[in-house]
Amino acid sequence: MILALWKSSLRSVALSIVVLAGLQSNVSAQTTSPEVKWLSSARQASELARQTGRPILIYVRSETCHFCDLMQRDVWSEPKTAEVIMREFVPLKLNREQNAEAVKAMKVKGFPSTLLFSPNHDYIGRLDGYLNNHEFLRAISNLRAEAYLDSGE
Fold it and tell me: What is the DSSP letter of 55?
C-alpha cells in the first residue's frame, strides 16, 4: 500500500514538473538527444523562462553563415554542451532571414551571435562569433556568473 502511494505521488510530481516546464512536442525529452532542442518562438521562450527561472539563451544565425554551421557541428551537437544548455537555459534560435526585425532590435550585426537574457528579459551579455565547444562553455559560464554577481544573487 505504501509503495503504491509512493509510486502515485512520484507520477504526480513528474507530471507537475512537465506541466510547469511547459514542454511541448517541439521540445522533446532533454536527455534522449545529444543536440540542443531549440525553441523558435520568443513567446514560448519567455513563458518557459518565467516558469522555470532559467535565463534565455538566444542563438542568432544566418542561412549563409559558414561559422554558424560550424557552431552547429562543433558546439550545439556536443552532448555535454546540449546537457548544460537544456538544464541551465531556455534555448531560442533565431534566423536572420526569418527574424530580421528581432535581430535588428538586438543590434546583432555578425553571425553567429549568442545573447543571454534574464527570465525577466534583462540583457546579461553576448558572445559574438564562432567559439569552439570548450571556449563556449567557459564563456557562457562566465557570463552567467557575472550576471549573478551583478544582481547580488
Answer: P
pLDDT digits (tens, 9 = 90+) for 94-110: 999 999 999 999 999 89
CA distances for 58 relative to 18, 42, 115, angstroms: 22, 9, 5
The string over 77-111, giving b where at least 16 C-beta atoms fall within 10 Å of a residue's C-beta and e elsewhere, is ebeebbebbbeebbbbbbbbeebeebbeebebeeb
pTM, rounded to two decimals? 0.75
Angle between helical axes of 42-52 and 2-21 (0-180°, round to 10): 140
